[in-house]
Design goal:
Layout: E1 2-4, H1 5-8, H2 18-27, E2 31-40, E3 44-52, H3 63-74, E4 88-90, E5 96-97, E6 104-111, H4 121-129, H5 137-149, E7 153-157, E8 165-169, E9 174-177, E10 183-186, E11 191-195, E12 198-202, E13 206-207, E14 220-226, H6 229-232, H7 235-238, H8 244-249, H9 258-272, E15 276-278, E16 281-284, E17 294-298, H10 299-306, H11 312-321, E18 327-328, E19 333-337, H12 348-359, H13 377-390, E20 394-395, E21 401-402, H14 404-410, E22 429-430, H15 435-447, E23 453-464, E24 470-481, H16 498-509, E25 516-519, E26 526-536, E27 539-547, H17 549-554, E28 561-567, E29 588-597, H18 602-612, E30 617-626, E31 635-644, H19 653-671, E32 674-675
Parallel strand pairs: 4-15, 5-8, 20-23
Antiparallel strand pairs: 1-3, 2-3, 6-14, 6-15, 6-16, 7-14, 8-11, 9-10, 11-12, 12-13, 17-19, 18-19, 21-22, 23-24, 24-28, 25-26, 26-27, 27-28, 29-31, 29-32, 30-31
Length: about 675
């Protein structure tokens, strides 16, 4: 939408620069695309303001609507231009009938007009500045009222109308030729204006060709109507176009302005094309007009939400400026009824938003907020799913019913809940984990040529206790195999490993409350040397590992696949996140290799190193595991890299040497390990 700045001054006495006006409109929630200062022979020093109106603010698709916003922001009195009454010369006996979808209709006949008269210079100028094409004085005036008041009007050639006017739904397969020569076939969901011979306009969208105004027109029938947004919405787009009228009707026009609009147009027509005016004919189904219910605002809650201290008196003042007719009560509540032009104010939250707009978004308190995560399973689930998707996983959904063979392979001896009336032999028991669905999906995709896959599923599993009680558990499971990243001719990717999956899980679980660790475990369908229990605060919440080679052979799978499983209900997102300052000083590191018993886990070594590395410890990393020549049987060599860093100074070699000595002594004492030289 585009309008002249001076046009606004017909409604408000505003003495602000164009930039200030645009800034106020932006802060009020109306998107300003830009403005251009101009000088005109008609309007003098002026400016063109371009607005991008959001769908909820249909009231601002007019100069009046924008002026109303500025009047509220600046506490200015809104003035409606005085409308000169025209002399009523006769009464047109045309009858009008309406329907619930188009409940209000006003019409007036103007005869003996001078259709070839010139459009008034001011109207012509403002239409040009609003990027409206000049057509003829009658159409120009209807377009002018559309822009000025937001009320679409339409002019019919009165001599081409037969009988009475009816607002009705179209007959099935009813045809109409529009002003732009489109031939449409309508159905019962469309609304039309018809005379006794059939449809003469696609209601709220475009007039028909056969009743259109032309250079030979001597009399017009002027229409000003209200149509329900639901009756117009999407109808034009269905046929591949949109009009200025449909844009406004489908967002909701002011249902109290139809008579004002037709009187305003009549006054301008009287100045332009002269003619003789009939009395206004109208029909309104009052019960089918929008009904705006009372909305109650709790001012204390509003201030708590906004962080403001807006008084009751100030709130009432704001609401009055918006036309909301506030009614004060004895306590801290205010009752309002939204005006006929505001379809977007329906609940208390809408009123709070209005207070924020008029108080000024830039004046609301600005506090640093700590990120907060909801402590709900849905939040945890959403986070986990989003994290996996970000890591290249695709989500699958499989049946909760599986067959007994799959359960025997992946169920780890868990009791099954049998289905009494299974729909097939492949759905005889309830699943106790999600792994079988993932593996079956993997096999299917593999047979379709997908050699590298990343899959996950979130769903319920069903465990049967010894007492016969069924426990439903929300679980997450994933599967990964193939190349670590897509291959290309210049860089062949390495294969995914157990440690790649472990790294993804470590990163994913780092935002949850509690201490997460990975411990050795024994799961029948996982490789004994590449499997781990996932523990949270010492409690097992899942596992990960490589599928056992013997099971891969049984399933005729020729490549390694890695899987994990988690109980989502056991995970709780941290309510807050902390951030650490970066050190300005360099870090120092040492590489160490220890000979340990084969039974000693890497996590045990990590725990000992961290506890003995001193206050400047920064990072621990394993970079090699070795068994073989030079290392005793039942022993292994673990090579680690340990780094230190201070926030206050550059560390000396002596600081690092002392820390290394403590680590070596602690590993020897607590784990029986020896430094490999």
């Amino acid at each position: 939408m585009q309008l002249s700045k001076n046009w606004l001054k017909d409604f408000i006495s505003i003495d602000l620069s164009t930039q200030e006006i645009c800034s106020q409109l932006t802060m009020a929630g109306l998107e300003v695309d830009g403005y251009q200062e101009i000088t005109s022979d008609i309007t003098g020093d002026d400016a063109i303001i371009k607005l991008d109106i959001t769908p909820n603010r249909g009231d601002c698709f007019s100069v009046l609507g924008v002026a109303r916003e500025l009047s509220a922001i600046n506490a200015l009195k809104l003035k409606i231009p005085k409308i000169s009454e025209v002399k009523e010369d006769f009464k047109d006996n045309i009858g009008i009938s309406v329907c619930p979808e188009g409940p209000s209709y006003y019409g007036r006949t103007v005869r003996n007009i001078s259709i070839n008269s010139e459009t008034l210079p001011l109207i012509a100028e403002r239409l040009k500045l609003s990027e409206q094409k000049l057509i003829d004085p009658v159409v120009d005036i209807t377009n002018y009222i559309l822009l000025e008041l937001g009320q679409p009007l339409h002019a019919f050639d009165r001599d081409k109308l037969n009988g009475n006017i009816s607002v009705r739904t179209a007959n099935d397969n009813e045809e109409i030729k529009l002003l732009d020569d489109q031939n449409l076939v309508l159905d019962e969901s469309c609304l039309v204006i018809s005379d006794d011979n059939g449809a003469v306009a696609f209601a709220g969208i475009m007039g028909g060709k056969k009743s259109s105004v032309s250079t030979s027109t001597k009399s017009i029938f002027l229409e000003s109507a209200y149509f329900k947004p639901s009756a117009i919405r999407g109808k034009a787009r269905r046929f591949g176009f949109q009009t200025d009228a449909s844009l406004r009707y489908e967002r909701g026009v002011d249902f109290s302005i139809q008579e004002i609009a037709i009187k305003r147009a009549s006054a301008l027509l009287n100045e332009t094309v002269s003619g003789e005016f009939s009395s206004i004919t109208s029909k309104t189904l009052t019960n089918h007009l929008p009904k705006h219910s009372k909305i109650i605002l709790d001012l204390e809650r509003s201030n708590r939400v906004l962080g403001t201290h807006i008084t009751k008196r100030e709130s009432i003042k704001y609401f009055k400026s918006l036309g909301l007719n506030p009614i004060s009560s004895k306590n801290q509540t205010i009752s309002v009824i939204s005006p006929s032009w505001r379809y977007d104010i329906n609940i208390e939250a809408d009123l709070i938003e209005e207070l924020a707009r008029l108080e000024g978004y830039d004046s609301l308190p600005q506090d640093s907020l700590t990120p907060i995560y909801k402590k709900t399973n849905s939040s945890s689930q959403n986070y986990l799913s989003n994290n996996l998707v970000a890591n290249g996983f695709n989500e699958i959904i499989s049946y909760s019913f599986i067959n007994e063979v799959d359960h025997d392979l992946f169920g780890q001896g868990a009791k099954t809940l049998e289905v009494e009336n299974p729909i097939s032999q492949n759905m005889t028991v309830m699943r106790t984990n999600l792994v079988s669905g993932l593996v079956n999906s993997f096999i299917y995709n593999l047979n379709q040529g997908k050699s590298s896959q990343r899959l996950f599923e979130v769903g319920n599993v069903f465990n049967l206790s010894k007492s016969g009680e069924v426990k439903e558990i929300l679980s997450l499971a994933g599967l990964i195999n193939g190349s670590l990243k897509p291959n290309n001719w210049n860089d062949k990717s390495k294969e995914t490993s157990f440690y790649d999956l472990k790294g993804i899980l470590e990163d994913m679980l780092s935002v949850f409350s509690g201490s997460c660790s990975f411990e050795k475990c024994k799961i029948e369908f996982l490789h004994p040397g590449m499997s781990s229990s996932i523990e949270l605060n010492g409690k097992s919440i899942g596992y990960l590992g490589s599928v056992h080679p013997s099971l891969l052979d049984k399933l005729d799978i020729k490549q390694d696949i890695f899987i994990f499983s988690l109980e989502v209900d056991e995970l709780e997102l941290n309510s807050s996140r902390s951030y650490e300052e970066f050190s300005r000083y360099p870090s120092s590191s040492r590489d160490l290799a220890f000979i340990l018993d084969q039974s000693i886990t890497a996590s045990s070594l990590e725990t000992v190193v961290k506890s003995s590395a001193g206050e400047f410890f920064k990072n621990f990393e394993i970079f090699d595991v070795y068994q073989g020549k030079g290392v005793e049987e039942n022993k292994k060599s673990l090579a680690i890299s340990v780094s230190w860093q201070s926030m206050k100074q550059t560390l000396l070699d002596s600081d690092i040497d002392n820390a290394v000595e403590k680590i070596v002594n602690s590993v020897q004492k607590e784990l029986g390990g020896e430094l490999r030289v």
